[in-house]
Design brief:
By secondary structure, the protein is an all-beta fold. It has a domain of 181 residues. The chain is 2% helix and 59% strand. It is built from one helix and 16 strands. The strands form two sheets. It has a 14-stranded antiparallel β-barrel. Strands 8-9 form a two-stranded antiparallel sheet. The protein is globular. The relative contact order is 0.18.
């Protein structure tokens, strides 16, 4: 599998298993997501704010003359109740679909949520994610997610239970975010990720977001890179490129849109 395979070792599965991570998990940390994308990253984020949002993502593998659509995602969230669908198109004509439903609630800076996933394509299996998110102070959020409870078997591979603690520090009036996470299974450390995100022209009609993330293996050797650019605030469009650890080429390019409307509590 090409295009989306560079970071699969971080998910404790092999390329031959044809299990592709949702693209949002490759550029967002569990303590960052708070719109419909949180369904895939950390379901607790769905309850961080009372809001309604929709999400669309289209991903092309090997962008250029040989580029092909590899994944698309649609999702929505309404006051913590969320539904999403991910479609993967693998080499050799294989297809896979993931249906996900989540719910979360929050109060006084603490949010908790759960998401159920149904995997289809070459069989059917299901699993659970549980997440928590806590704003320790206005500038610091901590939390994490337990992934693949039930250890679903997806296209000849079993997804191991994985623990993903995370933290995000906000600086300069929330214009800069610094985030980190670790990935652990019962067998030990799988890898780490470190990211930075900045917002330019904050408070204007067209804010500009810039983001970068480095994924590593358990020995802190580079395993993957991502770079992103977004335009807009409540109605946002973005572009994210991912590359293998050596950064020699872009293996996938995602175009996404998110529209969000927040409500008073």
């Amino acid at each position: 599998m090409r295009g989306l395979s560079a970071l699969l070792p971080l998910f404790a599965v092999g390329a031959a298993a044809q299990v592709a991570p949702n693209r949002a998990t490759l550029y967002l940390h569990p303590t960052e997501a708070s719109d419909a994308r949180a369904l895939w990253v950390n379901p607790a984020g769905l309850g961080r704010f009372p809001e309604a949002s929709v999400h669309l993502d289209l991903t092309v593998g090997d962008p250029g003359a040989r580029g092909r659509l590899r994944q698309f995602t649609v999702g929505l969230n309404s006051r913590g109740l969320s539904f999403g669908y991910q479609r993967d198109l693998f080499e050799g004509g294989a297809r896979g679909g993931t249906y996900r439903v989540g719910f979360a609630a929050g109060h006084a800076g603490l949010a908790a949520g759960a998401a159920a996933a149904l995997y289809r394509g070459g069989g059917s299996s299901s699993g659970w994610d549980l997440g928590v998110l806590y704003d320790v102070m206005p500038a610091l959020a901590v939390g994490g997610v337990i992934q693949s409870l039930g250890q679903p078997r997806v296209r000849d591979s079993t997804l191991r239970v994985t623990y993903v603690p995370s933290a995000t520090l906000q600086l300069f009036g929330r214009r800069v975010n610094l985030s980190g996470l670790g990935r652990f299974t019962p067998d030990g450390v799988q890898g780490y990720a470190f990211g930075a995100r900045a917002v330019l022209r904050q408070g204007t009609g067209l804010p500009i977001g810039l983001g970068a993330r480095l994924d590593t293996d358990r020995s802190l050797r580079r395993a993957g890179l991502s770079f992103g650019l977004s335009l807009g605030g409540p109605d946002m469009a973005g572009l994210v490129a991912t590359a293998p650890g050596n950064g020699g080429r872009i293996d996938a390019l995602s175009l996404y849109g998110v529209s969000t409307r927040r409500f008073s509590r």
